[in-house]
Write a structure and sequence with these properties.
2 copies of one chain form a homodimer. Chain A is built from 12 helices and 17 strands. β1 of chain A pairs antiparallel with β13 of chain B.
């Protein structure tokens, strides 16, 4: 038995090599052998550490002296590395590490399923995902998820600074916020339940409590189409805010978030930016354009054959629109506002001054929709009437309508798919690259 | 169409009243009317804002001058409030706000389902949860979730500082990490799937990638017992770390987290601490005691009738143990280590020097287990052998075993239930109080 005073607790922190040190200094660190490059009379041994690939030098005479033989080790071995520093101008840290000892803690049993120690893993997406736990050990591949971490961090930091409270809402639900058949059913003991398609009802309710709330959590969509931009489970970045003057207040918060992504990346993730050759988007200027204007622009400026009376965009239209703004205005983030009401959900607020249109918006980024948002109905009667007009039964939404019945301020919010935003930021054409373990209609493993 | 320069974007931030201002200054803010307390010749009108209850004064002569009649308003009304400041020593801000105008944006339709404007809501837990979206508008009730936010924030801040990477792992899974029947089944298109009982497999895999990882996300347990300390869906705080020397490295990180909870609460949440009358736990000293020693202590010092050969604790034993440490050592957090192996999961690493025991631990806090953690098996053969010894088929765990097969460092981690930790910190005897929308065997709504 032991009581431990906190002052005696040693937390280790992440092991990081010092940026410079004097000649002949002993250095110990851990990692796994990423690559052994044998030259004529020496070898480079690359060690994959928690964040970077560290190059060490195997100099046979030095190693021999300490009984170290590189032939006793293989790529993939988990090792504690001992070396001495040797001044070297051209090295990133100002020194080379000359090996004199290695202790093996583990390694590969049998054959490795893939070659991971090239710049990128040279295989099909399907194979990359099949052995995901291994392929992510590639330096390029794992850097993707540092970019993703940066985005989630920027989201939280920005919203906290703007006075939003973090919430955790249930994923097993009895009601279905987004409608449609695209929902996973579930037996919840003796009841029928669903997996949550979005925290919509709950985040609106929490506006009545905290005024401004956000959530980072999983979202489930049983969509049957197998496309490069859909996942059946993704991480939603959601926020909702009260006492707005218009949906533009929501867009303003999102612009601030986009700007903060760049700031966080530049502040905390320079190595990942470099590894992925990231081109940070323009966050000094944004486009805000109504749906009607956007269709006009596609017709007039892009000479696109826009179909009459279509109340949404074709993927090709989203692409053309973004291309136009990029080319003519150097703008990356394009907000399209005031969509036709019939394509938006039943909780979207309509524009009194423009019948048939809603106070909603999407954000397009490099050719793809990454956000859907808008002002919501806050008045009880207005919400009930809209439900009835859509053939819905308000009695099925008793829990949701309680908030309208007990008073809600004008409010609205948005949802962003983390994986899709990551993919667009890096420039991948398949969102699966930006999900650790993607779920699609054919993939439930690993 | 519009392009918006970021420099012109006005983000509003959360509306907060200035701490002091000169006499006769005009003030506008928004909220909902929490309570109207009519006195003989004036009234106090309490406004519930995003974070606090602000008292204003309705002085009839002043109000009359501006055509404001308090009888036109009701508790629950959503309002924009206009007032002038009046110097007042005893007021928290140094001034009273004398009302001269109110604009109503919404209000209660029909009757309110509960009285929420007392110190605490005077009703049954069941009713409190039935109209959760409304009952959370009570100042005491909503403060609980600021404490919860503080805990999650402390977790992320601490782990980020210690070099952990945030991950998002799938909740729809094909394998079952924690075993047993306590799992929710799900039809995933044409496949059989489950809801994740913990990110165990995935976080272990990510140690092979990032060395240190954490996740904050939902965890699903189909436990049929309806107790005050279980939820069927809760928010898990999970981390996992590589290259540990022993499970004590994990405990050390957790001690740092507990300490940081206090720091974050004191730094950012003084009002919530006050509202809930929170007694912060001792984070200068912790207890670390083996399972065997703990049973001995219960027998010898607590005179508890410890049953022979029981390889776990009864709830009553956990309570007694915590009481003893609190009373005799002023210690709140008690780590019990080296549990009998047969009560721990198949991925737990056994103690070579003490057969039958595992290198695992629980953390008890104020009478309840809030953490389970430990070192995991990193060797491939050792993991396969343990599975076989338990009658499991290693072929069913191909995806999981890939990490052992391709090399893993010694590693371990832990999981914490956010709601339970919040409840223990505040001192509630039912964990449901600390979940926005709890799910239990009888409750799937709201």
């Amino acid at each position: 038995m032991d009581t431990v005073k906190f002052e005696d607790v040693k937390e280790t922190g992440l092991e990081v090599l010092p940026p410079s040190t004097s000649d002949g200094e002993e250095i110990t660190f851990h990692g796994s052998i990423y690559r052994i490059r044998k030259m004529s009379d020496f070898a480079f041994v690359l060690i994959r550490t928690a964040r970077e690939i560290v190059q060490t030098v195997y100099d046979k005479p030095v190693a021999d002296e300490h009984g170290l033989n590189i032939d006793d080790y293989a790529e993939g071995d988990i090792v504690i590395v001992k070396g001495v520093t040797k001044h070297e101008e051209r090295s990133k840290r100002g020194y080379d590490i000359v090996l004199y000892g290695m202790e093996k803690l583990g390694g590969i049993t049998g054959e490795a399923p893939l070659v991971i120690n090239k710049k990128q893993v040279d295989t099909s997406l399907s194979q990359l995902l099949d052995v995901r736990s291994y392929s992510l050990r590639n330096q390029y591949e794992r850097s993707i998820f540092l970019i993703q971490e940066a985005i989630a961090k920027a989201f939280r930091e920005h919203l906290q600074a703007e006075g939003f409270v973090e919430i955790h809402t249930p994923k097993i639900v009895s009601g279905n916020a987004e409608g449609g058949a695209e929902v996973f059913d579930l037996k919840y003991f003796d009841k029928d339940a669903f997996l949550s398609q979005s925290p919509q009802f709950y985040k609106q309710a929490m506006v009545g409590v905290f005024e401004r709330v956000y959530e980072v959590g999983p979202v489930f969509r049983a969509e049957k189409h197998d496309t490069s931009r859909h996942l059946n489970e993704y991480t939603g970045l959601d926020f909702e805010m009260g006492f707005i003057k218009s949906y533009k207040d929501i867009i303003n918060i999102e612009m601030g978030f986009f700007r903060h992504i760049n700031e966080v990346l530049e502040r905390d993730y320079p190595d990942a930016i470099k590894e992925l050759n990231l081109k940070l988007p323009n966050v000094d200027e944004f486009a805000v354009i109504t749906f009607t204007e956007a269709k006009e622009l596609l017709k007039e400026k892009c000479k696109y054959n826009v179909k009459a009376d279509v109340h949404d965009f074709e993927p090709e239209e989203e692409k053309k629109l973004c291309e136009w703004f990029k080319k003519n205005k150097k703008i990356d983030y394009v907000f399209v506002t005031e969509y036709p009401s019939d394509k938006r959900p039943f909780y979207a607020k309509d524009d009194d001054t423009n019948p048939g249109y809603s106070l909603s918006f999407d954000c397009l980024f490099r050719g793809l929709e990454i956000t859907t948002g808008g002002q919501r109905i806050n008045d009880y009667k207005e919400q009930v009437d809209k439900m009835v007009a859509r053939g819905m039964n308000p009695d099925d939404f008793e829990d949701f309508l309680l908030i309208h019945k007990t008073g809600m301020p004008p409010h609205g919010g948005l949802g962003i798919g983390l994986e899709r935003l990551t993919a667009q930021l890096i420039g991948f054409d398949n969102v699966r690259r930006c999900c650790l373990y993607p779920r699609d209609i054919n993939r439930l493993r690993p």
